[in-house]
Amino acid sequence: MHDGFSGILNLTIGCGSLLLGVLSIILYFTGVFRSRRKVRLRHWPTWRAFSWCAGTFLAVLTLSVPFMEAAHHDFRLHMAGHLLLGMAAPLLLALGAPVTLLLRTLDTSRARKAAGWLKKPIFSFYRHPVTASVLNIGGLWVLYATPLFHAMHSHPIVYLIVHAHVFLAGYLFTVSMIYIDPAPVRHSPLFRTAVFIPALAAHGILSKYIYAYPPVGVPADQARQGAMLMYYGGDLIDLVLIILLFRSWYKQTGTRTKRFIEKKPAPS
Amino acid sequence: MTTESIQPSEDPRHHRLSRNMWAGILFGLGFVAFVDEAVFHQILHWHKFYDRSSTAAGLVSDGLFHAFSWFATVGGLYLVADLRRRQAFRHKMFWGGKLLGGGAFQLYDGTIQHKLMRIHQIRYEVDIIPYDLVWNGLAVIMIVIGLVLIRSARRDGFRKEAPVHA
């Protein structure tokens, strides 16, 4: 199982992700300082910068060479890495509100152009809760319920693609469920809830499937502990997403009620 | 006020009373699911994470209810917060809904999920009948008390609460 695992590509993934991580933090802080210089804008919250750094750190950590090698031998670590890379890091990065920061940093005409870009139907398609859920949870089913998991460990390129997919689909899922950055197409909280429930259920069912039928090459006791980690860890992170989803509903209905009482028209 | 401006179903009193009930049903369901997980899975270790005799439908049903219970708990509490903000929170109706929702879920879990779909039993290596009787008996009692409370809350809701305040 370990023979085909090429050290060079491993190193490339590790160094590449470290480089991307450092670059993302530099860019983010450049944005923060530039936007703080604009006096007319509201102060950019420090906790968002913290969140961005923490998310970057977790993603780089799970793609570092020592972690990847340890996770290769231990399914529990592999699963912990997936929780961090596919759920925790995307949530922390999304809370960093990178698109909002970008739009604030750019000058007006460029920001307008960028905002126009984000309105393209292709983004709305990928950001649709159903698309994002299918890519995210469907991808995991394909990974663990087919020979792909085994293939991933013998072909480094597959390893890279799988991990990039886990991270990107995780981010997509997060931003499809909670709107922190501007979202041109906004789905109602009820609709997002209706999509989220089967997605979370499919995640839980997959954990139990892994518990019952370990992927090829994984010892049964490791598969069981990894599956339980997936089940409860997934619950925990999704609970944060659920709270954020309902919190935004609560705030939104609050302003609507106030507007109704004060008989003010809705802002256009 | 003409009948066109306010539909009977949009009567705020009726709307808010049933919203209190739904907040209770959701929170009750979520709470029972949480107790099931915390007490019977984690503390007592009576329930199993996975039972080989589970049917496929059982796994799907368990997964859906488990996921739904998180939304029900959080959503139910935010509904309560919203009702309190509007000063429309009614304890009796909330308790009625809570017992009804919790009892209904416990009965579903104890009969369909445990017995029909065999996702797991309440406890292993014991005579299961007394456990099942207490589990489902308790569920029925919760449902009955819940329904009685809801009926009574609905009655005094329309009697006492004549002027509606925002």
TrEMBL record, chain A:
- Segments traversing the membrane: 6-29, 49-68, 80-103, 124-145, 157-178, 190-211, 231-250
Carries keyword NADP? no
Q: Kindly give the membrane topology term recorded for this protein.
A: Multi-pass membrane protein
Q: Give the InterPro entries listed for this entry.
A: Caa3_assmbl_CtaG-rel
Q: What does the UniProt keyword field contain?
A: Cell membrane, Membrane, Transmembrane, Transmembrane helix
One Pfam match: Caa3_CtaG
The protein's location, in the record's own words, is:
Cell membrane
Cell membrane as a keyword of this entry, yes or no, is yes
The record's GO CC annotations read: plasma membrane
Name of the protein in question = Putative membrane protein
Instruction: Give the species.
Output: Edaphobacillus lindanitolerans
TrEMBL record, chain B:
The record ties this protein, via InterPro entries, to: DUF2243_membrane
Q: Record keywords: Transmembrane included?
A: yes
**Residue intervals passing through the bilayer:** 21-44, 64-81, 93-108, 128-150
UniProt keyword annotations, A-Z: Membrane, Transmembrane, Transmembrane helix
Entry protein name: Uncharacterized membrane protein
One Pfam match, by short name?
A: DUF2243
> What species was this sequence derived from?
Edaphobacillus lindanitolerans
